[in-house]
Amino acid sequence: MDKRISEAELEIMEALWRRAPLTAAEVAESVDEDRGWSPQTVKTLLSRLVSKQAVAHQKDGRRFLYSPNVARDDYVGGESQRLVDRLFGGKVTPLVAHLAERDALSDDDIEEIERLIRGLKS
Amino acid sequence: MDKRISEAELEIMEALWRRAPLTAAEVAESVDEDRGWSPQTVKTLLSRLVSKQAVAHQKDGRRFLYSPNVARDDYVGGESQRLVDRLFGGKVTPLVAHLAERDALSDDDIEEIERLIRGLKS
DNA sequence: TTTTCCCGTTTACAGCTGTAATCGTTCTGA
DNA sequence: TCAGAACGATTACAGCTGTAAACGGGAAAA
């Protein structure tokens, strides 16, 4: 948990959050579908993540097994907080209000948020 | 509305969203407090924003007047959507749930969101 | 044993960012 | 009229990103 994780690196993290530990080749497989990256690219991203300490690797014979070193929840929480801080003065309500106004909320969403909020109140 | 606005550039946008049109010098003044940028830096950021078409400039004598070319609301909406897409599978509810779980919501927030949701339902 | 393959590591390279300094031109005050 | 001042434009430069290719060493296959 050192420097920020870039967009491409996030793809790698998602693969490792889905399943870990994985070898570089397995990560490449788990990710290639959508992005079409060469295995080299995946390896580069993995080592960058290792130096950023977002990913840990332990030797397994002559190869490495990679595992996330940051919980997805923590990452997601941090990023959400960043957004809220940067754009909504640190307040969550305006974010929700904003999404609501932009019709980004379906009726089901509204229903569900209401249930959620109701749960929080008790 | 072309390429993405970077973090530093966002500071400039915020100044222009607060008040516009402004000269480069005025932007620098309106922003310098927190960041401690040299006026040159502000000018560089302004021209980058102009080439990204996030800012418009019209000649006023031998200087330019700069104005935002993107509404803050649109920008904020786009960024929020990006976050929701990248980290919450495009669903808003998990975001709210997440913030709630992380205790990022005060009682007042909850109260207010509830009011907001209630408003949406009717 | 020799060739081939697989790994991780190193190097590459262009585009974006942060942060300016410098340049050329034009207005302005002396 | 002539030297600054003020502007925008051009150039700088290191660090981060996206996207690999090349390299070197060991393991596996022939």
UniProtKB/TrEMBL annotation, chains A, B:
It comes from the Bacteria. GO terms for biological process: negative regulation of DNA-templated transcription. InterPro entries: BlaI_family (IPR005650), WH-like_DNA-bd_sf (IPR036388), WH_DNA-bd_sf (IPR036390). The keyword Transcription regulation applies. GO terms for molecular function: DNA binding. Keywords: DNA-binding, Transcription, Transcription regulation. The keyword DNA damage does not apply. Pfam families: Penicillinase_R (PF03965). Belongs to the BlaI transcriptional regulatory family. This is BlaI/MecI/CopY family transcriptional regulator.
